[in-house]
Amino acid sequence: MEKTAIKCPDCEATFTLKKNMYAHCRNIHKIEHLSKKPKMSQCHICDVKFANKKCLSQHMKTFHNNSTNEKHTRITCPYDLCEENLFTSLKLREHLCVKHNITVELEEITFDNLKEFETWKQKIEKETVSMYVLDTGAKKLFNGILKQYYFCHRSLNYRKSGNDLRLMKSMGSNKIGKTCPSKLETTIVETNGVASVNVKYWKTHCGHAQEIGRLKIDKENRAMIA
To answer: Which segments constitute the C2H2-type domain (predicted)?
Structure first.
């Protein structure tokens, strides 16, 4: 069985044994202790990663109203006759594929700046008669990159707001109480003062119809979509 080569973190030298690589680092690069890559702690609700458990715990308190890291989840299969609870969006997509024969289509796109991303987002919302709402504020990862997650506005449970009471009385809540798999995951990378946006766009909606009456748009745009 062929052994995997162990590469020096500071040059192109490779070794078959870790102890030889460590000796090389001490003798050639004068490095006494190699720093280990920090183990990331991941939120089981929204998949955001953090450099340590303390940051994860604070995130749970602030954004998920949870004072502990107990495994409560708001992710539920969107089908009426299925009550399966999942702990990540990835597990939801796997469940839909295996149990319901639904493949959630993924498209990956890169935009040169935030304005291009916002223009594209408005375009797909009109084309698909849907909306994507920011789940929480931007999360800065340990390497300075910003992550944001936008969920289908029909997903999850209703949060009380005085602005939507009239719509709720006429049509019922927009929220289906379950989790539509369609979402946007954005990674914002700033280079020389310009922020590029990498987007993962899961296109497939499940568990609800796409109705114009449930969108927060003005009369002119509503007529154009219709």
So the answer is: 6-38, 41-69
